[in-house]
Amino acid sequence: MEYNKQFFEKVFSTKRMERYFNLYPGDEARAVLHYRCNLELAEAFYTSLSVFEVTLRNALCRELETMTGRPDWYAVFPTTPGLTRLNYYITQASKQIAGRHESITPSKIVAELTLGFWVSLLNSEYERLLWKDLRRAFPFMPKKERKRKNVSAPLNTCRAGL
């Protein structure tokens, strides 16, 4: 089998491969090499990103449990003004778990929530309601620098690049 432009467009989609072939017009081999390098680079970051996501999730979850006094801290979102919008993500996580015919538990809900959800908790719209408690999730950050925007901005930049 020949691994040419048509093969890569068929397997990965024309839209996905378009940027690589446009970078190297007439040089399919170089475009494919660039794509393969990009895959290898993404693979190299995967473990670190996974560890980062779990660490952030667990730290924020711990503070939310402390704040609400309950392992299903998300149960207070539907009745807390300013947090009701977050209930959509909890509902989606519950549907995913139920779709796999698994019991819905706090730990499964937490595991199902995306990095985007966890990062969004640090956005300015939740500063007044959550930051006072969530800032404790970053105990090794110098107190002078432990401001919501100093945590949120780089996390949102990182997430946007994924």
Mean pLDDT: 93
Beta strand %: under 5%
- End-to-end gap: 32 Å
Structural class: mainly alpha
Shape, principal axes of CA atoms:
elongated
Keywords:
single chain, 162 residues, mainly alpha, elongated
Description:
The longest helix has 41 residues, at 28-68. The model has no long low-confidence stretch (mean pLDDT 93). The protein has helices at residues 5-12, 14-23, 28-68, 87-99, 106-112, 115-120, 127-134, 148-160. The chain has one domain (45-160). The chain is an all-alpha fold and 162 residues long. The protein starts with a helix and ends with a helix. The chain has eight helices and no strands.
Summarize the structure.
The chain is mainly α and about 160 residues long.
Layout of helices and strands:
Blueprint: H1 5-12, H2 14-23, H3 28-68, H4 87-99, H5 106-112, H6 115-120, H7 127-134, H8 148-160
Helix pairs in contact: 1-2, 2-3, 4-5
